[in-house]
Design goal:
PorP/SprF_Bacteroidetes; 2 helices; Bacteroidetes-specific membrane protein
Length: 327
Amino acid sequence: MGASDKIIRILRSYLQGLGLLFTASLLLCPVLTRAQQLPQFSQYAFNSLHINPAYAGYKVDPFVQASYRSQFVSFPGSPETFSITGDMASRDGSMGFGASLLSDRLGASALQSVLLTYAYRIKTGDRSFLGLGVSAGTSEHSVDGNRLHPDDATDATIPMERVNLFIPNINSGLFFHSETLFAGLSVFNMVGRQNLENQDVVLAAHNLHYFFQLGGVFDLGVETTFKPSILIRDDFSGPLSYDINAMFLLNNRFWVGTSYRSSIRNEGNRKALVVLLDLFVTDYIRFGYAHDFNLTATNNYRNNSHELSIGYYLGDRVLKGRQNYKF
């Protein structure tokens, strides 16, 4: 097969996947509501389960990962996020199963969530697949009034103690991938704030959030692989944020790259440059680190967001074939 035939085949597979994603997005996008951004991770490039339930089982072998993120560490009450995720594929690879635990704290507010994930993969081409995924569970939103210091202590709207609310959580997504291209679309918090009785506790953190990712993997030769990608996040009330990523896989063992994060509807906010590293310490253990350089904050608080992750493969169905995971 000639080079032109390969390009045509790749483009046809790619457009087919995007067409399916676009059609499904019409079903996934109900009425838009106001919201804030969900807790974020910079290392989603190595574990997209954080942003798309349809990713579950992509790595085939059982994979467990723990991640910790600390932002603006010099500020009192700065955000801290911790998560544990696990996923695997069925024996024939047609289904994926996953679970995740998340703890996120910001000042006096906190979010704890537990999710179970299921994904089903449809073969759309010779080596292309479309995964359809859903995750469901529960979230606890809380505000600790003991950590607040209001100017007006008589304000009845400010809680004097810890108040919390348990609410259902449902997310859905699609994830298309071929040998060289991938795209994903997901909707988080499909049980919106408008359906909850105590809206003051959850604020706007439990409304609809949308994620769209697009990228590719290209062999540059000399044991070097290039992986460009973009991620768009939107809640249709605040700024639309986006990441532009460029990653390189060296010697089929070490990922290194950078990401530029900014927003469209608020150009003066949320600009950051991220340095990402991910190393296969062994065939079964991988370690990741991300450092966010805030480009818009004051000089004293520029270089103070860190993210660590460690993952472990529990099986070797794919590892025995000396294949690494590039999405």
